[in-house]
Amino acid sequence: MIAARKLGYAGDELSLLINLGVGYTDTGDAERARSYLDGALHLAEQSANSEKIAIIRNNLGALAYRLGQWTEARNYFSDAWHYFEETVQQAQHINVLGNLGAIAQGLGEMEEALARYEQAMALYQHYGNLAGEASMQQSLGSYYADTGDWEKARHYLLLALANFRQIGDRSWIGRVLANLGILSARTGSFQKALGWLEEALSLQREMGERLAESSTLSALGGVYRKMGDLSRAIAYYEQALSLQRTLGDPANAATTLNNLGLIYRSQDQNEMALALYKEALALAQQVGNLFSQAATLSNIGVVFRAEGRLADALNHYRESLELRRKVGDLQGEAATLNNMGRIHRLAGEQTKALAYYGEALKILQRVGDRINQVGILSNIAMIRADQAEWEEAELLLEHAIALDRELALPSEAEDLITLTWVREQRQAATGAIRPPGLEIVGRLR
User: How many CB atoms lie within 10 A of CB 284?
Assistant: First the structure.
């Protein structure tokens, strides 16, 4: 999680401007946040206050990160990091190291992210900073969740929870509880997920942390959506959206509108989904969140694809791809390339589809994202089956199933059905069938 830094207010204008900028960053009011931080930076530069300049650049990085402007955020953090390293300001230096790790993780540069987190963790442990150590355990939990190592993710999140409870930091306790809930949902443990999230929600409401409450409400909506209880999912998303609007948090409101759109799209209510996506896009554009804009354009493309408007879908995917590349979002880029491959397959342009799928797969392999490799392997397999390249189709599906099993993904059942169908088609076409399960590895524990 990206960390901004408030200063103890000593009555000076510069500290006040910094604290206002951080406050408006936390509430999602990007325009006011940037205004105050830019004002603070101007004052700090006028007085040649290098330490305050570095602190402000760190906070501008946190704002850029929230807006999905990750390359810009990295530049701000790097500037701040070099200053704090040179001046041996360990607390600030380690804080920025963690921020740089979060940027690398967001950009899909997983080795870089892990190196930054582990470097920060070692420094926090060296200086006996338990709160900092716990924050890095939380970050490592998020990292391992993104790479599909559920056991390590849970291990680090539980360590973070124990340490924050020892410190008595209830705000962080709520965040870690929510993340444990999100992790449990990703692994299919829905009742555990609900338990963690409801505990987080109760604590956040008790403390009056309404911004965190809105995120947890949205996470609860996500769990019920995965469980297929769409009426409850909608109810939680609408509670979250109402709170985000009350708080003036357009960035998170855009995300919630997208999530609602996904539900209505799954019910073939394309007109409602499209209206929600367009509202989300307007909010993302309002705050300048390029990451959110890219995701929303891609979702609009999905609606157009479902309606058979392939040219419109492809145009929206292209716009999304341009933004993904602009902010350096490698995993988002791969997702959009995958969507473009599906359009070309639907249009009967198999060679183009394979090219897009292949490009997406290479990106995911490079960043170590095994979870999303599964769907692309299955998509390539279907094209190989369309081309009667049965051997290649089976090998690809067996590779996908091996990952399904290793990562305990729910897509295993569907991939097994597809593999059975491919074998049946192969036998009907050639009279021969390859020995089953030759390439499938056992479930790893």
Answer: 28
